[in-house]
Amino acid sequence: MPFSFDLIKKDTVSCARLGKITTPHGEINTPVFMPVGTQATVKTLSPEDLVNIGAEIILSNTYHLFLRPGHELIRDFGGLQKFMGWNRPVLTDSGGFQVFSLADLRKISEEGVTFQSHIDGGAKHFISPEYAIEIQEALGADIIMAFDECIPFPATHDYAWESLERTLRWARRCRDAKKETGQALFGIVQGGMYPELRKQSAGALVDIGFDGYAVGGLSVGETKPVMYEMIEASVPSLPEDKPRYLMGVGTPEDLVEGVDRGIDMFDCVMPTRNARNGTFFTSFGKVVIRNARYERDEQPIDPECGCSTCRNFTRSYLRHLFNAGEVLALRLGTIHNVFFYLDLMRSIRASIEEGRFTEFKKEFLSKRENYDA
Ligand SMILES: [Zn+2]
């Protein structure tokens, strides 16, 4: 099946939308959350676990896979899906964000970025927009991303503008370089924390023409109101008939607020990373499992959660596993947190379908706000 997006329903009160993305590896119901599988694995979970907790698409990181094991090796194994044993949709980022956040000695030129990697003893690498596409074509994800510059926060208006113009030239080069692989290519709205630059970026990307549009460069240290303002500055310029993806965001509250503003796709390391630290998301707030108050607690992490961890284990037992440094702790915690995020998206979709998203949002936020963690 070629890539397509069907807009099924638009909320009448908010900008929330219900949709379906079709890819060569299956369908994705939107709004969707994509668990992050940086190194071709969602840490501690098997593909079977991911299917069981309802993941429809995962995200993998081009930068990491390019450095290790190398995109050519993955191509020789038939692409990411075959390599990792996951036969559902995958999205790869362009590597831009990691080049700017993890690598050392970056040097940006019109041609691309030279950097020293963080894992192979500081070897020098060069990624251009064309090469970012070539790498992602070798990895073979269903959705690939244009190569962009992620500017530091805060950034001056001059720098944000200059970078945005370069990122637009790179976006055009990415689109021109892409071969007929059946992969969908998304452009990325940048523009720092300047609403008019965000609007300009979104409009120019639409003129170039992509299969979907992402809002990038957010959740980098700005306040929540600023983040929401930047989404609001970007989304109205994007076409209704293409998916919209908010990159690297965020908390459960952020997902609900993003959907409210017309976002269809999200990814974030929060559920997986927090799970490995023993911090769990629940319908009533956060549970920090090492807290002494859970020592003899016979309840599951979240009594309202239907995940296998909550159906089978007490807070007391999980706290013990974390304190004893047992690896099962990481796996059981990750199952719960990823399930919580995916279940939240299921509830969001049901509420849009039934025309009660705004009521759902109000109830969800008040329930989580009122908990004293
Ligand atoms: Zn659970």
Task: Give the rounded overall mean pLDDT.
Answer: 96
Strand content: 15-25%
Q: Are any ligands bound, and if so which?
A: zinc ion
Give start-end ranges of low-pLDDT stretches. Answer: none
Q: Report how far the terminal alpha carbons are from each other.
A: 46 Å
How helical, in percent, are the residues? 40-55%
**Molecular shape:** globular
Main-sheet strand order equals: 4-14-13-12-11-10-6-5
The largest β sheet comes out as:
8 strands, parallel
Number of helical segments? 15
Would you kindly provide a written description of the structure presented here, covering whatever features stand out?
With 373 residues, this protein is an alpha/beta fold. The chain has helices at residues 47-52, 62-67, 71-76, 80-84, 96-101, 129-139, 157-177, 195-208, 224-234, 252-260, 270-276, 308-312, 315-323, 327-353, 357-369; strands at 4-10, 17-23, 26-30, 32-34, 58-60, 90-92, 104-108, 113-116, 124-127, 143-145, 184-189, 212-215, 244-246, 265-267, 279-282, 285-288. The strands form four sheets. It has an eight-stranded parallel beta sheet. Strands 1-2-3 form a three-stranded antiparallel beta sheet. The N and C termini lie far apart (46 Å). Bound molecules: zinc ion. Zinc ion binds at residues 301-302, 305, 307, 309-310, 336, 339. The site of zinc ion has 8 residues, from helix 12 and helix 14.
